[in-house]
Amino acid sequence: MSIEPPTLTEPVKLTIRPEAGVLAGSNERYEKRLRELAGVYRDEAAFEALTVRRGDEVAYWVESNTTQRDAGGLITGLSVLGPGRVGEEYFMTRGHLHVRAECGETYLGVRGTGVMLLDSLDGRSHAIEISPGEAVYVPGGWVHRSVNVGDDLLVTLFCYPADAGQDYELIRRAGGMSQLVVASPTGWTTRPNPDHPGYGSADGPRAAS
Ligand SMILES: [Fe+2]
Q1: Measured in angstroms, how far is the CA atom of residue 163 from the centroid of ligand 1?
Q2: Residues 6 or more apart from 8 whose CB is under 8 A from it?
Q3: How far is the CA of 61 from the centre of ligand 1 (A)?
Q4: How close is the Cα of 176 to the center of ligand 1, in Å?
Q5: 186 alpha carbon to ligand 1 midpoint, in Å?
Q6: pLDDT digits (tens, 9 = 90+) for 124-164
Q7: Cβ 10 vs Cβ 49: under 8 Å
């Protein structure tokens, strides 16, 4: 009896260029413009004012390498998020829960100062600062987004299972994540998001009370 050999893909070398926000060796890229982030920030008037002036600007981009798409493969990428605020909230990514919620993800800080904001579906929350040389491991089951709390680009290298998928709607349906990352006299801080009643059950969001 013979054993079928696995289909081999070739190894990949990736080079981080933090000054340009480039991941050489990547084979995918997407950009998210400021005006595409409608509904992400609580201060709608501030968002409107910002998009009138800067709506076409790229808020963040991702360069990634997907070589092995099947289960067992990993996607490695660079996330680049500009600095700024909408009202009192710092610029952030939309955030997501992995469709295969058990899948974890590692983020390594490369440039700038950020916060990894994490929510569990049962109401726990963490805000973990990430600077160059620091990594945050996001275990399966945590909703996550990056927030740029500095004045520079926030550049992070991430790695996650290729078949994890991303659910972006969960946060939108829940009125945002449970915590806001806002400016304070001593830097950034978090405070509860009053629009977030919880993530609800598998059947849909909990009604706001
Ligand atoms: Fe993720």
Answers
A1: 11
A2: none
A3: 14
A4: 16
A5: 29
A6: 999 999 999 999 999 999 999 999 999 999 999 999 999 99
A7: no
pLDDT band with cut points at 50, 70 and 90 for residue 76:
very high
How far apart CA 209 and CA 199 sit, in angstroms, is 13
State the amino acid at position 150 in one-letter form.
Answer: G
**What tokens does 185 get?**
């006299």
Distance of CA 9 from the midpoint of ligand 1 (Å): 24
Rounded to whole angstroms, the Cα distance separating 129 from 131 reads 7
SS3 labels along the chain: CCCCCCCCCCCCCCEEECCCCEEECCCEEEEEEHHHHCCCCCCHHHHHHHHHHHCCCEEEEEEEEECCCCCCCEEEEEEEECCCEECCEECECCCEECCCCCCCEEEEEEECCEEEEEEECCCCEEEEEECCCCEEEECCCEEEEEEECCCCCEEEEEEEECCCCCECHHHHHCCCCCEEEEEECCEEEEEECCCCCCCCECCECCCCC
The two tokens of residue 196 are 């977030």
Among candidate residues 21, 23, 42, 159, the one with its CA nearest the CA of residue 92 = 42
CA 52 to ligand 1 centroid distance, Å = 30
